[in-house]
Amino acid sequence: MKDVKILIVDDSPFQIALLRDTLTENGFNVVGEAQSLEEVISEVNRVKPDLVTMDMTIPGTDGFECTRAIHDIDSNIKVIIVSSMMDEELIKKAKRTHVSGYVQKPVDAEELTLLINRVMADEELYLELEGMYANVFKEAVLDLFNKLTKTVPEFTDESTVDIAIHSEGISIVMGIIGKYSGRLIFDMSFETANNLAKVLLRRDPKNNEEVLNVMSEIANMFAGNACSMINKKNKLFGLRVAPPTTFHGESINISKAELENTYSAHVKTQFGDLFINIGFKRGDGEWMSII
Fold first, then answer.
1. Which residue, 95, 120, 145, sits at the end of a domain?
2. Which single residue of 47, 111, 275, 277 could bond 290 by disulfide (Cβ 3.0 to 4.6 Å)?
3. Which domain holds residue 249?
4. b/e string for 39-65 if b means 16 or more Cβ within 10 A?
5. 261-269/154-159 β-pairing
6. pTM of this prediction?
7. Is 80 helix (H, G, I), strand (E, B) or coil?
């Protein structure tokens, strides 16, 4: 990651000193400070920072007006609010003002460093994810089946072509959020789902609803374990899974998502075939705050 130049905006010399020490000790280049709107405009033009830490209480103005002034000069400059105040209304307004993140005082050095590095992550981070995620998700499938069923599935028809999907009967769709956003699809026939549920429940499923609940939890464990494995390799990703959405029926078509790269495969198991499809895209991803 490149050297990150940071401008500190705060009306308290004490807080500026604390932030300067924290940022410097963690490898960032503090290039200036400002305590008013006029100083913000002057310093941004003078030092051309990559990122600004912004207090909310500035004499005669506030952090949002200062942020708008910064983006009028250069919309590429990232702004992170560092304030003692944090509530839902302020966070909503911060998002509308194109703030990149929000941290509450007193600041934890590790959390602030992680947030800045996530906000400033460049192309190298995405390429790192692109190069690893398919193998990680495959490993997660193998590990899950080994732990739950003591069996080893086989991967066939592996592809990186983004395609529309025609369901075999049950499709579980999960969003992935974090530094980058993505999507996972876990698809199978009712027969495969029933066979797998029977083994996991150690009895016949009571009804189709119970089968769907079991498969939803399997998908949740699969996606969650894979994202945790990726985060362990590099915590800047900060990936998490959204609650699963389950579709079922005789004719389900899922259109192609606007993803930059995908991985798909058929997974042959002792209980029947499964289909997995995972993909990610560049972009700001989840709006980031340390709460």
1. 120
2. 111
3. 124-290
4. bbbebbeebebbbbbbbbebeeebbbe
5. antiparallel
6. 0.81
7. strand
